[in-house]
Every structure is written in C-alpha cells, then in structure tokens.
Amino acid sequence: MNDLTPTREQRTAALEGMGCKRKRVEDIRFTQGKGNYVDDVKLPGMLHGDFVRSPHPHARVKKIDDSAALKVPGVLAVITAETLKTVNLAWMPTLAGDVQMVLADGKVLFQNQEVAFVVATDRYAADDGINAVVVEYEPLPPLVDPFKAMDKDAPVLREDLVGKMSGAHGPRKHDNHIFEWTVGDKELTDAAFNKAEVKIKEMISYHRTHPSPLETCQCVCSFDKFKGELTIYGTFQAPHVIRTVVALIAKIPEHKIHVIAPDIGGGFGNKVGAYPGYICAAVASIVTGKPVKWVEDRIENLTATSFARDYHMTTEIAATKDGKVTGLRVHVLADHGAFDACADPSKWPAGFFNIVTGSYDFPTAHLAVDGVYTNKAPGGVAYRCSFRVTEAAYCIERAMDILAQKLNMDPAELRLKNFIKPEQFPYHSALGWEYDSGDYHTAMRKMMETTGYAALRKEQAEKRAAFARGETREIMGLGISFFTEIVGAGPSKNCDILGIAMFDSCEIRMHPTGAGIARMGTKSQGQGHETTWAQIIATEIGIPADNIMVEEGNTDTAPYGLGTYGSRSTPVAGAAIAMAARKIKAKAQMIAAYKLEVHEDDLEFDIDGFRVKGLPEKFMSMKDICWAAYNSVPPGMEPGLEAVSYYDPPNMTYPFGAYLCVMDIDVDTGVYKVRRFYALDDCGTRINPMIIEGQVHGGLTEAFAIAMGQEIRYDEVGNVVTGSFMDFFMPTAVETPHWETDFTVTPSPHHPIGAKGVGESPNVGGVPAFSNAVNDAFSFLGSTHIQMPHDFWRNWKAAKDLGAVA
To answer: Fewer Cβ in 10 A, N or C end of the chain?
Structure first.
C-alpha cells in the first residue's frame, strides 16, 4: 500500500451508498425545466378530450343532445354512456370491489360527475364542444350528511344495488350502506368498560380533504389498430396495476397494453386508482384511430378525483384513576361518496384503521366501521398515509389528550405510562397487528429533553395566569403526538389489490465496464428513487451509485410491481432491491473465487470488492468482476451478471415518531402562530438523511394545511364550495412554519436492510400535533374537543363560544 492507495473511508465515500447525503440526481433535469411529464407527450395526429360534467349532485339524466356540439369546428365525436355500452365499458370495477360509472348512466351522483366525453382536434375545440352539449336533468334530493345516509326516508343513491343486501365485504344494512367491518373482542372490551374507573367518549371527525398534487391527473392513449396494441402514457403511481385493470375492462390482451408513467408532479395517493378519463381516452383512440390526450384542470381535480379522509370516529377509552388504559372502543362512520372507490387492499375495507390502538398497550379493543354512500365524489385515497392510518393516529392521539385532560394528567406522562415497552416487541396488538420493533420511551424522552418540555409547560402556566388577569389576549397550546404507523403493504398473506399480491420487484443488470441499470416495479412522484435506489445497490455490491441507472414506470421493461403509495417503496421495493443485489453479489463472489484461485468461502466482501481472508493483497474489485462476468466465468456458469427479485415481505414495518407543536392563538381574531414544531422520526435504517428531511418537511407542510384549514366542503344541497385554490387552503412559504427534525434509529428486524419507510410519517404525526396544540390552548377555557380544521374563523368562534370573546 502506498500514499495514493484510497483509505477505507475514501472507498466508502466514493460509493455514495446508504447513509450518504447524496444529492438528488433527478433534480438536474427538474431544475432546468427538462422533466418529461404527460402533458409534454405530443404524438402525431393527437386529439384532445374533455368532459361535460354535471352541475347537479343528484339528478336523472333525461336527455343528452350532442347535435350542436358535433357542428363545432374541430369536434369529432361525443361519447356517452350509451356509446360505452356498445363495447361493455359503461361501468368499471373499483379497487374496493364496487363498480363505478365511467360516464353518467341514467343519473348523476355527485357534482361535476362525468356525463359525456368530447373529442376534438385541440383543447380549445374540445372546450367549445362541451359547452355546446345540452343535457336535460331532473334534479333529485341530495344526500350530503353521512349521518342521515341510512335514515328510512333517505334518498336511494345507487339504484343498481337496490335489493342487493350483500356486498363485496359482507351484509349491507341499507341501500346506502356499503359495509360493516369489525375487529377485536367486543365482549372483553365491553367488560373492560363496565368496570372502568374512568371513561371518556368523544366524536372525533377527520374532515374530507384532497391530495391536490401540483400536476393533475392526465393521460395520452394511442391505439394501433394494425397491431391491436394500446399504449397509455399517464400519471400512474402503479403502472402495472393500471395495465391489468385496462386488460380486464377493455378485454385487450395484457401483453398488447403498454403503460408508461413518465415524470410525475406529485401523487400523494391521488394517482393510484383508475379514472373515467383513462377509459374514455382509450375508447376515443380506438374509435378514432388516433392518439387522444386527457388533462384535467384544477377544479376537476379538486371536485371529482379521489378525496381523502372523511371519517367520523366515536372514540371511547377506559382507564384506571392513575391513568393506565384498560380498553378502547371505536365506531367509525366512513363517507365514501357515490362509489366505493377507496384504494385499499382487497381484504381491508377500512384500510389499516385497526392500527388505532397506536403506540399504547391496550389489553383489549373493539372497532366497527360502517361505510356509506353520499352525493359526493368517490374515492378514499392514501393521501400521504397508508390506508387510513392517518385517521387512526389522529383518533387515538386526540383521545389520549382528552383522557389526560379528564385525569388532570400531563399528556406526555400519560403516554409514557401506556407505551408498549421495548421488551414487548414483537408486539401483538389487541386489533391484530404484529408490531416489528420500537423504542417509544427513548423517542418521547428525547423529544421532551430537546424541546425543553418542562420549561414550556411552566411558560404556559404563567401565560394562563396572565390571561386570567387580563394582561394578554393570547393563549398558548402544546400539542404532543406520538404515532406508530403501519407501512409496507404488503405480505401476500393479507394484502392484495384485485387479487394481485402486494409484492414488489427489482431487476439489476450489470454491464461489462462496471456500470449497470436497475429497474423496479415502483414509480417515483418526487420521492427521489433514482437517487436512493442506486444508494442501496452501491452499498450492497460496491459499485458507485453514480454508475447505476434507475428506471421505473415502463411496464414493457420494469418487472411487475404494485407501485408507490402508502410508504411501501422502501419497505417492499427497497427489500427487493437489496435481495436482487445480494444475488448479484453471490454470483460475483463465485467469479472472484475462480479468478483469484481460491474457494469462495475463503473470500470476504470489502466495501467495493472481494478480498482473500488473511491475504489482503489478493483483491478483486466489483468493477473487474463485472468485466470477467462477460469473458471468463467459471466452467459451467452462464455469462453475465444480472438478477431479478420479487419480494413478498413477511410482515409490515412500523415506523414511529414523537412530535411537538408550540402554538399561540389570539382569541380576539383567531389568528394563530406556530412558534415551534419539532418532529422526531424513527424510520429504521436511514438510506439518505437529506431526502428523509425533505420528505418530512413536505409531509409536515401538508399536515399543517390539513389541520389548519384545508377542507373539501359541501353545502347542504351538495355543491362543492372549495373547488379551487381560492378556497382550498394551500400554504405557501409565507404561511409554512419552520420545521425542526430529529431521529432515532430502531431497525426493522425482518427487513433486509432494516428500513421502515418515512414518506407518510410527517402527515400521520403532524396533523394530531397541530390539532392537539389548538385543543390544548382552548382546554384552559373549558373546551374538551374542537373539530378540525382550525382556521382563524373557527378559532375565533371557539373562543366566543367559550366566553373568551364578548
């Protein structure tokens, strides 16, 4: 070894593997405006489609007159439900086992529902065309309030289901009822409540909101009638699933469907499911023989594509006088809109809401969820959360604060008293999940020490005394949340979509010169996969991350995968990547042993190659092994160095975190100020700390928006009153607080690299932290629970209702 020989630290740094703050390689094209999005796709002869949408939330469609529209210059066709019936495409299956109209078939069930699809030579002609279509409606009574959905006199919405008292998830109680899902031990839980020393009960609502990604949903469909092949470019978080759904609906052989998801400007769950625009654009291309593009505008995105949340949770906790929880009972009324189009695994009609026991050692619990139809847009997506986990975390974290208030106990101390202990892992919850690992006490205490929690409580007491004396009009709230998330859907034993197990995949192919390409079944919408996936491979096989190209989103080249949503990429695809890399490494070891003339057991991996044990000078780099794989492999071995892995995880992963929000509220105006927000996350092994921090910042900003004003609101007759960013709160850099981030590391014991996932966590933990801060502030005035969102007006009204404002 001489002075020019790289040190171990230099060799490790050169890889830019796991743990390195590697800059996002994607940003080179994005910051220069060179991204390739769906609306950048321009094919020869391409046409444009747009929808005629209903102004009514509930009405019969008496007549559609397209004669004037067909006379508009540039308009080529008007597609209606009657058109789609000729090819058996008037209805499409949803991911939740329901069926959904593609275009209004006899009636409309929500405002802005798709009624007809106009195809024209350009978007301007299409817009003129939709305005020329005349639709005659017969308005019907709207059903907006989910609590009235199963009343005897409630209007029947889904006439296609009348008399069918059994649905995809069991018996139905009413024509507007979708399912009842229960889990847990009801008798044991009831017994715990019967003998409880202390009980709380509260209706905790998580309002309807929307992912509202920067790029709306869109597609380009191109049918080649000579080959019988359909190519679809689209904003798809799960391209392979879309291909399978289209094959099932359109009866086109799946090998003749090519789905390509180029760069995507945000997804957040909004781009998981199939929308009528995809089907109509495909049909229009088949009919016209030309490519057809559909791009929704912002109002369409907010009012008609999949919403999130809308869960109304009656929550009860039983406890002892000294604050030990003894039972949990929750009933949820879930507003699913006009069709059950929730993007949940098939066996879980309420998603993973049974994580509602949270981070606490409940001896017994019972959960019941009723889903109902209303005259609202359908959906129920995993908006920066894994299948209703955010609702569950909000439910239990608000309930724990309410219990602490009743017991006159500090909410942090109540949580510490009831946390699952480290020695209890793997922990089996009362509602069926097996938590893989955790160290909740350490995370909570680190949060309390870092933020000076005791001093903040002292300051709060002083400010309350000053308020009582009339010396200030501000009240101070401390919002704690401690969440456990369940991500990594999922094990085939309990997770599938449309019968397809929720595994994921990776294919790695190393080239002779020591560079390679890796293809995955995931699809980034801003998560930085091109950066982090290469880092996993770099650490596993010793090839610099810059020498690994990552490719996703093309079903012709990528192995079949279930896509990116619900923080499943790292827990599932990340594992597949590591396992494929280890197959590469295993073959590389055999080649190195052959070249170094030793038994493969005599070799050890050393950062970027193999070294003979006890003879450090006998070394072969992975770059040299790649060359040898194509010219001098051992006798009987196939040339090349590539591997494929399909990873079916044995369990979910369970990231967790401890958050604290410090907020001041002026009771006379309702104006709030987030003075401080601290977020500690434990996502297991950290692949790229810089990208994790970016994910946390983004998720906290969304949590801030949801808790403090973001809402899809309907009036009493079913009109959407928050259909644009003028009314739907979208925080800018001006409103967004400063974020403090921190971490602990508790690796997942069953994941190949110990990673758990982090993308959803800040939304899961952030929302209850904000809401708890507001509620903690108003608890001083005698309030128990104030529903979200906590905008200025609602804060002022709460202060007025509590007598703090004249």
So the answer is: C
Q: Give the residue numbers marked as catalytic.
A: 237, 384-385, 760
Segment holding 407, helix H or strand E: helix 389-407
CA 282, distance to chain mean position in Å, is 27
pLDDT of 171-219, one tens digit each?
999 999 999 999 999 999 999 999 999 999 999 999 999 999 999 999 9
Write out pLDDT tens, residues 646-701.
Answer: 999 999 999 999 999 999 999 999 999 999 999 999 999 999 999 999 999 999 99
List alpha helices for 67-205, DSSP H. 81-85, 123-132, 186-194
- For every residue of 293-312, DSSP letters joined together read EEE--HHHHHHHS-BEEEEE
Residues 6+ apart with CB under 8 A from 642: 507, 508, 509, 510, 584
Sheet holding 107-108, edge to edge: 107-108, 59-65, 134-139
The phi, psi pair for 416, rounded to 5°, reads -55, -35
Tell me what pLDDT residue 1 has. 53
CA-based nearest residue to 146, from 348, 371, 308: 371
Q: Is the dihedral of CA 298, 303, 307, 310 positive or negative?
A: positive
User: In sequence order, what are the residues at sequence separation of 6 or more whose Cβ sits closer than 8 angstroms to the Cβ of residue 221?
Assistant: 230, 231, 232, 278, 281, 282, 284, 285, 291, 292
User: Rounded CA gap, 303 and 719, in Å?
Assistant: 10
How many Å is the maximal CA-CA distance in the chain?
Answer: 90
- Nearest-10 Cα torsion for 211, 215, 216, 217: -100
| Cis amide bond preceding 426, omega within 30 | yes
Residue 725's CB is within 10 A of a number of other CB atoms, namely: 12
Q: Other CB atoms closer than 10 Å to residue 586's CB: what's the count?
A: 11
Q: Would you mind telling me the total number of residues written for the chain in this entry? A: 806
pTM over 0.90: yes
* Nearest Cα residue to 377 out of 460, 301, 475: 301
Is residue 766 within 8 Å of residue 659, measured between CB atoms? yes
In the block, tokens 């060179």 appear at: 34
At 318, the amino acid letter reads A
Strand partners, 279: none
Q: Give the integer Cα–Cα distance in Å for 763 and 389.
A: 10
What is the CB-side half-sphere exposure of residue 444 using CA atoms within 13 A?
A: 23
What distance in Å separates the CA atoms of residue 51 and residue 113, rounded to the nearest whole number?
9
Nearest Cα neighbor of 363 from 191, 533, 160, 497 is 191
| Overall average pLDDT of the 504-524 stretch | 98
How far is 471 from 574, CA to CA, in rounded Å? 56
Distances (CA, A) of 186 to 202, 366, 367, 457: 19, 5, 8, 38
Nearby residues of 105 by Cβ (< 8 Å), 6 or more positions away: 81, 85, 90, 91
Q: What letter represents residue 762's amino acid?
A: P
